[in-house]
């Protein structure tokens, strides 16, 4: 994409233009995802960090300084999110080992108790009610991804849309759902 076009889309995105956000995501997705895939060597982590990178970048788009390349700014955000993830995992593992010592080495029974199952069902019912508050196209991508467990490519094929559009829709749907849940 031509540099002036990128700058125009950044300006439009700063003004809240959703199409500009989509264009920026389409333009830079592979750069950020590829960077994370090399770092994490894990497709799921790379995809998760890439989605969070764009989410954070779009939330903070007004803080972007055009004296720097947009791609560099995205990669920096992405790198910091990866570092945070590593720290969080290390801290969690160390806490687990400190708290349980030899118990960590034992195989855990992951079968939920009757009480756990009841809580899970209640939480699921609440979540489904919250999902129903979303617009139908957001409900559809949430259901296909998390309840039907389809990949982005499968959802794109099902809805006859490009994969990057599905990623953007899912990102927006999750943000809107999070807002609904936190308002409770």
Automatic annotation (TrEMBL):
CDD domains documented for this protein: Sigma70_r4
One term of GO molecular function: sigma factor activity
GO BP term, pick one: DNA-templated transcription initiation
Pfam families for the chain: Sigma70_r2 (PF04542), Sigma70_r4_2 (PF08281)
Keywords annotated in UniProt: Sigma factor, Transcription, Transcription regulation
NCBIfam families linked: sigma70-ECF (TIGR02937)
Source organism: Flagellimonas eckloniae
The protein's name in its UniProt record: RNA polymerase sigma-70 factor
């Amino acid at each position: 994409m031509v540099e002036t076009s990128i700058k125009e889309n950044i300006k439009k995105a700063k003004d809240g233009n959703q199409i500009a956000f989509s264009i920026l995501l389409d333009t830079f997705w592979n750069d950020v995802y590829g960077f994370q895939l090399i770092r994490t060597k894990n497709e799921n982590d790379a995809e998760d960090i890439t989605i969070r990178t764009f989410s954070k970048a779009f939330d903070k788009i007004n803080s972007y300084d055009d004296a720097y390349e947009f791609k560099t700014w995205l990669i920096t955000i992405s790198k910091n999110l990866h570092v945070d993830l590593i720290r969080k995992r290390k801290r969690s593992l160390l806490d687990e080992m400190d708290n349980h010592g030899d118990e960590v080495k034992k195989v855990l029974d992951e079968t939920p108790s009757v009480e756990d199952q009841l809580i899970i069902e209640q939480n699921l019912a609440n979540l489904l009610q919250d999902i129903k508050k979303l617009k139908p196209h957001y409900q559809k991508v949430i259901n296909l991804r998390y309840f039907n467990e389809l990949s982005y490519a499968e959802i794109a094929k099902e809805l006859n849309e490009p994969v990057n559009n599905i990623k953007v829709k899912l990102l927006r749907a999750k943000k809107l759902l999070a807002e609904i849940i936190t308002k409770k």
